[in-house]
TrEMBL record:
Binding positions for ATP per the UniProt entry: A12, S13, G14, K15, S16, T17
Protein family per UniProt: Belongs to the CoaE family.
Catalysis performed (reactions): 3'-dephospho-CoA + ATP = ADP + CoA + H(+)
GO molecular function: dephospho-CoA kinase activity
Protein's name in the database: Dephospho-CoA kinase
Main location: cytoplasm
Pathway: Cofactor biosynthesis; coenzyme A biosynthesis; CoA from (R)-pantothenate: step 5/5
Gene behind this protein: coaE
Native species: Heyndrickxia vini
Length: 200
């Protein structure tokens, strides 16, 4: 029976950093952010839904969604963010479920589902256990600003749109403190893998 692990954490907390380590160890990763990009490709259902809801003004010259523009709208307007979620999340759930079934049929013993909004979107029914990657708020903001070239205001708006860290810590089966070096993070990850006897 495959063990399904939910990997989550606030924006820029280090989920992709941890999932990359897992991938190099041969684990199967199903990434919700990739799913959310796939389902809004030109011609996909969510693509048409976004244009209906936000108008063609959020398209680039080549017809693709202008992510920067859409992000600047939804992270400063809760109603618009929830509207976007209502369009994209059902398609993301279907995509993730399909990939999970494929991985189980392929005989994978452990499947990692990297889902930023695992708790916010109440998706814990999809997984057996959860790992939370966390950082202190000031480090999170600094890393997000640096990685995405965001202003402090935009970084704070994105961080503020997600569940509070202490709530997520309560809900998680294991936590990884990603405030220090990546080597330190790796050690905590290996402890969890050994304790839970996770095989790829
Ligand atoms: C708003 C969009 C266009 C911004 O795109 P952009 O390329 O700037 O960000 P990207 O998609 O890489 O997301 C980066 C991070 O932002 C956070 N985030 C993204 N969407 C949301 C959201 N609706 N609510 C809260 N946080 C979010 C997550 O931590 C995510 O890992 C895009 O994030 C999007 O379509 N969001 C809606 C779908 C969604 O909720 N994705 C999150 C994972 S399911
Ligand atoms: N321990 C660390 N020390 C220094 N920088 C780090 C560390 N962990 C992650 N980073 C950097 O912080 C940024 C955010 O990390 P990462 O992209 O893994 O977060 P994430 O949780 O996947 O973000 P998102 O919510 O956007 O998916 C990246 O630029 C990454 O290189």
């Amino acid at each position: 029976m495959a063990m399904i692990i939910g990997l989550t954490g606030g924006i820029a907390s280090g989920k992709s950093t941890v999932s990359t380590i897992l991938k190099t160890k041969g684990y199967t990763i199903i990434d919700a952010d990739i799913a959310a990009r796939e389902v809004v490709n030109i011609g996909e259902d969510a693509y048409n839904g976004i244009i209906e809801a936000f108008g063609k003004k959020i398209l680039l010259e080549d017809g693709n969604i202008d992510r920067k523009q859409l992000g600047s709208i939804v992270f400063h307007n809760t109603e618009k963010r929830l509207l976007l979620n209502s369009i994209v999340h059902p398609a993301v759930r279907n995509y993730m479920q399909k990939k999970k079934t494929e991985a189980i049929e392929a005989g994978k013993q452990t499947i990692i589902m990297d889902i930023p909004l695992l708790f916010e979107s109440k998706l814990t029914y999809m997984v057996d256990k959860t790992i939370l990657v966390f950082v202190d708020p000031d480090i999170q903001k600094e890393r997000l600003m640096k990685r995405n070239q965001l202003s402090e205001e935009d970084a704070v708006a994105r961080i503020g749109s997600q569940m509070r860290l202490n709530e997520k810590i309560q809900l998680s089966d294991a936590v990884i403190d990603n405030n220090k070096t990546i080597e330190e993070t790796e050690k905590q990850l290996y402890n969890i893998i050994n304790e839970w006897e996770l095989e790829p």
